[in-house]
Amino acid sequence: MEQFLIILILLELFEISWQKGKNFRDYINNLFFFYKKSIFIFILLHPTLYFVMFSQIALQNYSFLASMLVLIKVFDIGFKISLMDKIYNQKDLGAFKPLLEANYPLSKGVKGAGLIIYPAIFFFAFS
User: Fold this and answer.
1) Dihedral of CA 15/66/50/5: which sign?
2) Residue ranges per domain, the chain?
3) Whole-prediction pTM value?
4) CA-to-CA distance for 34 and 42, rounded, in angstroms?
5) What's the rounded Cα separation, in Å, for the pair 42 and 31?
6) Which residues contact 50 (CB under 8 A, 6 or more apart)?
7) Nearest 5°: phi and psi at 105?
8) Which residues have CB under 8 Å from 4's CB, separation 6+?
């Protein structure tokens, strides 16, 4: 189980490394750079989703928390795709207009939240 947790943390570090941006607009632009290349590339750049599903099968753990972690990961990717579609295809910023127009820097806490949240859920789900 410890090896799985270490692998998840390393994969989260990979995701953080490519999902970078000084502010919210840079973050979304970086995501869109990969999304416009191919939606499949974009989805493949989220290996933690596949690792959590693999862990669930390998460890035969279909508990509520383990399943919720998979759902959170799926909703996270879906939300990013939906957000990019609204911004770049529909040109509708909606509630995100203030975030996109302002240059508020993203704190390290926001950038690294997944590095704390997802491994913690994983630990409780699989221990």
Assistant:
1) positive
2) 2-126
3) 0.89
4) 6
5) 8
6) none
7) -70, 145
8) 55, 58, 59, 122, 126
